[in-house]
C-alpha cells in the first residue's frame, strides 16, 4: 500500500453547497455542481443561490480546460482552475 493520495482523476462529478459572506452583512447559501466527465453530460460548473441576497439567481461556467492543483498527486485534489471559460448568468 502506498502513501500517495488518490483522486486526481479529472473525470468527476461533484455536488455540494456553500456560503457567500457578503461585506454588507447578510450571507447567501448556494448549491453547486461540477462535472468534468463528458460521459455525465456537458462539462460545467454551476451554482444556484438558495437563500439570502440574490436568491434564485444562478450561474453556469463552461470550462474549456480544467487543471488540478500542482501538488495533486501528493496532497489530493483541492482546486480546479481554468484559464478560459464561458460564463452565463440567469
Q: Can you tell me about this structure?
A:
By secondary structure, this protein is mostly beta strands. The strands form 2 sheets. It has a 5-stranded antiparallel sheet, with no helix packed on it. Strands 5-6 form a two-stranded antiparallel ribbon. It has one helix at 72-75; strands at residues 13-21, 27-35, 44-51, 58-63, 67-68, 80-81, 85-89. The chain is globular. Strand 2 (27-35) and strand 3 form a beta hairpin. The N and C termini lie far apart (47 Å). It has one domain.
Topology:
Elements: E1 13-21, E2 27-35, E3 44-51, E4 58-63, E5 67-68, H1 72-75, E6 80-81, E7 85-89
Antiparallel strand pairs: 1-2, 2-3, 3-4, 4-7, 5-6
What labels would you give this structure?
single chain; 90 residues; mainly beta; disordered N terminus
Number of domains: 1
Strand percentage lies at over 45%
Task: Calculate the terminal CA-CA distance, rounded to whole Å.
Answer: 47 Å
How would you classify the helix and strand content by structural class?
mainly beta
What's the overall geometry? globular
Discrete helix count? 1
| Record field, number of beta strands | 7
Q: How is the main sheet built?
A: 5 strands, antiparallel
What does this entry show, briefly?
The chain is mainly β and 90 residues long. It has one helix at residues 72-75, and strands at 13-21, 27-35, 44-51, 58-63, 67-68, 80-81, 85-89.
Amino acid at each position: 500500500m502506498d502513501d500517495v493520495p488518490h483522486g486526481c482523476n479529472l473525470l468527476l462529478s461533484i455536488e455540494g453547497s456553500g456560503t457567500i459572506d457578503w461585506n454588507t452583512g447578510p450571507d447567501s447559501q448556494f448549491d453547486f455542481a461540477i462535472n468534468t466527465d463528458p460521459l455525465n453530460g456537458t462539462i460545467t460548473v454551476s451554482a444556484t443561490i438558495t437563500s439570502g441576497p440574490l436568491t434564485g439567481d444562478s450561474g453556469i461556467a463552461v470550462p474549456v480546460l480544467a487543471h488540478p492543483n500542482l501538488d495533486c498527486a501528493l496532497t489530493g485534489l483541492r482546486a480546479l482552475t481554468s484559464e478560459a471559460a464561458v460564463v452565463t448568468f440567469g
